[in-house]
Queue: 2 jobs
Job 1
Amino acid sequence: MSDLAPFAARQRGLRGTLGWIWTVLGPFLGLILITVLFAWMTRETGSFLTLYNWRTIAVQTVVVGTAALGMTAIMIAGAIDLSVGSTVALVTVVVAMLVKRIDPALPGDLRSAGLALVVAMVLGVLVGGLCGAINGSLVAGLRVVPFIVTLGSYKVYRGLAKWLASSTTVYVPAESKAWWLSRILAPEPEPRWLMIAPGAWALVALAAALAIVLRYSLFGRHVYAVGSNESTARLCGVNVPKLKILVYALAGLATGLAGVLQFIYMSATGDPTTADGLELKVIAAVVIGGGSLSGGEGSVLGTLIGCLIMSVLDNGCVHAGIPNPTQDVIIGVIIVAAVTLDRIRRGGS
Amino acid sequence: MLLEMRDVSKSFGATRALDGVSLAVAAGETRALIGENGAGKSTLMKILSGAIRPDSGSLWLGGEPFAPRGPREARRKGVAMIYQELALAPDLTVEANVMLGQEQTRLGFIRRRDHQRAVAQALGLLEHPDIHPRAKIRDLGLGARQVVEIARALVAQARVLVLDEPTSTLTSRDAERLFTIVDRLRERGMAIIYISHFLEETRRIAQTYTVLRDGRTAAHGTLAETSERAIITAMVGRALSELFPRTPRAPGTPVLELSELAPRHGNRPANLTLRRGEVLGLAGLVGAGRTTLLRAIYGLHPVVAGTVRVAAFPDRAASPRARIAQGIGFASEDRKGEGLALDLSIEDNATLSALERHSRLGFLNLSDRRRAVAGLMESLRIKARGPRDRAANLSGGNQQKVALARLLHQQADVFLLDEPTRGIDVGSKAEIYAMIGRQAAQGRAVLMVSSYLPELLGVCDRIAVMSRGLLSEARPAADWTEHSIMEVATRGAG
């Protein structure tokens, strides 16, 4: 084994120097490739390569992207969260129910300003954080692998959402929807100079903040260390259980925000069956963006590109008139192909 | 000669792992294969087992050319390997493991009766009828597991048996039983290659030896006619005195005191005083409890009784975090599994225990950190492209230096080093010895565990020996010899 080290070192040489650029460039080239492909396939109608369509793609990316930011941190720490979709559904239900409860009790001008919505949405984010904190505490406290813990909470949170909503959709009455609510995820933003929807800007800002925290903060370096080698982190005095709880709680806040955005995306509706399978989409996005199921790897920019690839695929298939079953097959193949290419590029292991 | 390897060479990229090595073993002969890690022993054995193919040279087995295309073919032709990390399936039974890959079947169904007979016969021959064929491997001790591996080789009708560091994890009683088995197999006409670091042990078991160094045959001959010193010199390529430079130092105030310290499993209460400016060695067999003691001091292993007094902080147990704050640093024996996060950069690894030195309000000053790491890399002569290079890209010696750089970075006063030079090249060893000497001369204290006795005798001021969890009194290194250390280490064992 040790005799092979110098050879392996030269193999990985390129990655050492340009590693970061490569991990992001790879997915980026993939994104450009499928964009060109769809543009060619839709050259007759030209409907794919329009500014409006790309603004729509941006909006369609917001929910997945926000949840994927949390998942990025969790996966870098070497864990996983399967309860993302259920948490999002739970949050939409909680927010919708809170609005229905709070709004009628408010005086007129506060109602028209949408104070109930603001309060409910903040609480919705916190519910997401609580869900994450529970996941993290169970992972750290029971020492059960994250896959199993969150497989359990995936069912529990979904069940809770259905129970709260009595298994039906919770609609917020029209008079409780403030004027600004629909603008958050409007493809054509108001004012025009925003270019993309305010919700998409929120995603960009959150992504930048997470990238900075992961790269420059003590906490961020500890996240990478725990994901890369938990024993080493413990040896170096990192409080591993506390760190895991914190990572899950923070990721839960991001998931909570994704839930709030999903609530807005569904025109202020709480739906206990929504976001089914979202967690797999999110994990796929992180992995396409260079994340690893074994931890220690992943970047915010890569994840964002991974999310865009997923959205462009969804959107492009519709514009190219590819039937839904074929879409599923294409997306499945691309996930495996992307990760396989990534492994080959890195030299096998 | 039953097995002959003639002028075997093998390169990996620009690295010449083997350069014209020859090795021959007759039926009824045990040959010790000796050499530092990285000398080429494992490459040579991988060629023999068919895992890799030589660039040039030839292999002969029983007078016929032998060019195995893979491990399966080598095994079928009668070459059996028993590795340090045993290749057994822990949840299967002894019988299933012995027959794994050599099942006797009829129409795809296992012929149980034949299996039972073959396994009973092999275990009987190895004088281990006490190992039940239906027992699960996970319930067996390490010695018994090794016997199972040898039984597998017997059922496969092996003619050449390679044992790779077989005793490094065994108790001395299990080791003695293994020697008896190896002797018996040799008398039955097997050719045995015995790889080991322990020179005294090779003398007990082998008749002839071959020393490899840097991919070449450094010496070979009959053990009875060769002194231990000559073999060591052939191994390291220089006289030992050059390897262990002494720094001027004198023991100062006590900095670490253990009183009646007992970690949970098996260890008896230990008393020890470590002073500033001192290097104290812990000798003993693997499994004697040295690592547990070190880990208990550092807070990685629970403590049931007694106290650890670090300078002015007396307490029973503490977390690694607290120990780091008290000025204690720990380097793990398991460099790849625990010591380093291999996927992270040198700078991440070297600074992980004391990141706050470069942070303000929780955010890091990366350039400040890079400067500090570059300085450490220079003083320890870590060979890499730069601080951002991944630890996985480094050689074993440089990786170990990164693990030690972490202790320098956290400005530890007390260095707890567990097998600090295991598996690294001689050049890196010399630099690590020099580093240890420098630290002691600057008034720091070092407590090191090592299984390599010349190293302990050369580097340490005092040595204590641990045997089955019992720590002896620490005596000046000059009062010990390899022989007297081994005597204490194996005392009460048996």
Job 2
Amino acid sequence: MDFPMFHLDWLNDRFLIAMIAIVHVFINHGLAVGFIPYITWLEQKGVKMAGASNITDPEWDHLVYRKMKVAFIITTTIGAMTGVGIWFSAGLISPSSIGSLIRVFYFAWFVEWLTFVTEVVLIMIYFLTWKQSNQSLKAKIRHIRFGWFLSVFSWITMCIIVSILGFMMDPGNWNTDHSLISGFTNPIYLPQLFFRTPTAMVLGGVFGMLLTTIFTDRHSAWRNTVLKYGARWVLCWAPVSLVAAVIYYKAMPAAMRENMSTAVGTMEFAQYYDLLRYIIPGAVSLVVMLGIWTLFRPRSVRMWMVLVPCVAAFGFLGIFERVREFIRKPYVIGGYMYSNLLREEDYPLFKRDGLLKYATYATASKVTPENKLSTGRDVFMLSCSRCHTTNGINSIVYVFERLYGIGKPLDENSMAAYIPNMHNGRTYMPPFPGNNEELGALVAYIKHLQQTGEPLEGAQSAGITVNPGNSTEQIADSVQSK
Amino acid sequence: MSYNYSMNHMLTLLQSVTPVPRDIPLALPLPEWLLVVLLVVSFLAHIIFVNLMLGGSLLTLWAQVKGLKNKEYDTLAYEIAKTITVNKSLAVVLGVAPLLSINVLYTVYFYSANALTGLMWIAIVPLVTAAFLLTYLHKYTWHKLEDNKGLHISILALAVLIFLFIPLIFLTNINLMLFPEKWGTIKGFMSALALPNVFPRYLHFLCASLAITGLFLFWYLGRNRYAFETHFKSITRYDIRKQLYSLALGVSVFQFVLGPLVLITLPAKGVQWNLIIVILCGATAALPAMYWMWKGITGKPEEIGMNFGKVIMAMTLTVLLMASGRHVYRSNALAPHKKLMAEKTKAFERLSAEARAHPAPDESTTAQASGTPAAPGAAVFQANCASCHKKEGRLVGPPVTEMVSIYQGNLPGLKKWIRQPGKKREGYPQMPGFPQLSEQELTILTDYILSVK
């Protein structure tokens, strides 16, 4: 409420963060954390298989190099920029929460940045010196050692970021102990790290196998051997990933796990929850089947046969990320800040005096019969717009129509009765923050939206209106008069 | 007293057009001065690689176009192009630390400017990604597109256009955050771009990019380890280095025109003597560097690099002072507004604490206090069920009377359903479960429901 509200009225604000973040996680896990050890391992195999007279087998080495080239290009472009994109999108959509988190986690993120810089420097050294290092065995061995260093660094970067993610999922710790340590010691940290590590390895391996089928034709010399190594790699990690997924699921705090069925089930993706139950064993068994098949019949493996388990494995990780994001609700910072970016501790004040009185950007600080629609729009923007649109994805009109009947005219009284209590039944919803007049304005606006389909423009196009009744003096005066 | 009055008066005027948001009420993670040092230094490290990325791609384009006539310049272009992909990776990764630092030091200002230019701001991510992919495409198709130079150069030209545009987005934001009094007038990126000072600063930045890239390549192509003669036949190391020095010197001279222009177009509110002094010192430090470059260009060929170390030292000092000047202006310009914001934040925190201590009575609970014997169960019903169920007729779910007809005499069944509802019926939304209700709450609730007649 102290920031101009950026708002995407069709796409949904959360979707923007989610899209960028999921691409980043896919690339980070599948093409860095899990892929680089796989590549280094293969590079090492090339040296071992070459025999005493050669440094490495040139054809084998070139194939592994080409795979690394793909990962290098993708990680240093889309991977790097989506990483920055998470900051950019979170700052646009969720400024209060990301701003608060940075105040607490500055040091953690700074350390993470240092490991990240090292990772980028190492990845450049590793890839850009590959061909030169083929000139002597000593250089080649040093190069392979670089590869292992790089693998460790990518993993360490992940360890730190998981601490930050774990912190946000552990309810209540913000108020008692908001330091980095609680990120590492909270009950979700190790299970999450344990889940991500083998899953990244599986992704890296399957993606590597996919590249093998793309870069080699069926008669080329090393194809079968490379595929079989890939199969051994994924078969080694897939069972660990399955066990870790189960442990991770069980370690999620009980209250949050309860949320999962409603959380996932009530989204517009109606079969989401069912999907979760099928995709975990489904994706892992697809990968295992691919692995076993490849070990016995490598010659018959086709690109599409790898593509299917590859997509499934990425989906497997994706759905976990989706659920992890959702079980944070109704908070964005557990026990401290709701997903509408309002602090829980400010609720008594908003309930007493109204939300608009303290809003920096609003058309008025009080609801009157004349300004009901514009103040209703303000209340919507301040307390609903982070997750709901007016007529787009997860639109406010749609969620109410789903309750009261699709296409039926919405009833203001019913909505006004529902909203103050919705958080009891829909535990992922934050409580409504405003007073009764603001509630009235909000339901009038929602009804108006249903009738007119009027879109809501965010600050990025409509600009801002500075709340005329909100000045430092007025607040200071009201403090003195008490 | 009168000073105090006029100060207050000024603040009031400022507020009448200026939003005064509240700051995030959490302490800074480190002492402010240390954060400022981290911001200035890490930003410098970032911007130098941005300069090299932008300047490098501009020079590659120039050399490749020239290479259409003289093959040697095509080789030069390829040699410069190899540096871009490395420099661009460092530019991105080094950008994260100043981003974190500005987020923590200027939270409200930075995020507000971002939101006001939001679409263009977030477009940075796909635009830069596209430009990076294009530079790789350009680099890795150099030999494949040997016979199709037009297409090959177009790939780079497109990347250069994007690289030229991105700094404008950043500058617009960094500029807009300094002027909360303008926020109310901004409608999207274009109007923020039109604020005074964006374009002079942009040109200043472009020239700096060319100067820094000129010096970098002067060193890069002049290194002993760099086997110049194996790449080039007709042009000499000296030719190239002389051209690069001339470029660096030429744009440095031009900076003496642009610099004052930037200063003049700066809104007056942050211009104070401390700023002028820092900027003048920075400009002065550049003078000896320019003299040594001039001597290098006009001197003997074998002595062209003689003073290069001194040039770099003087220029580093210039860049450091200019970056500090930037910060001094920002700090001057925002000081009064920051003070207002801090006051407002404090006042709000006080009010919020007071409201927490004396919360307004909750209407729903007071209503039930005036009570019948069923009151406690009614309160639980009111808080958890009433949004969807009323006594008669459908609201969201079926009416209470229907529950009574189904569950009369089956209290455990009703409890089980509330905890974990079964499958929804046709035309109704799925009821959420209420596992958070305690056994006692559940008992009084179900007693209440089944007592409804």
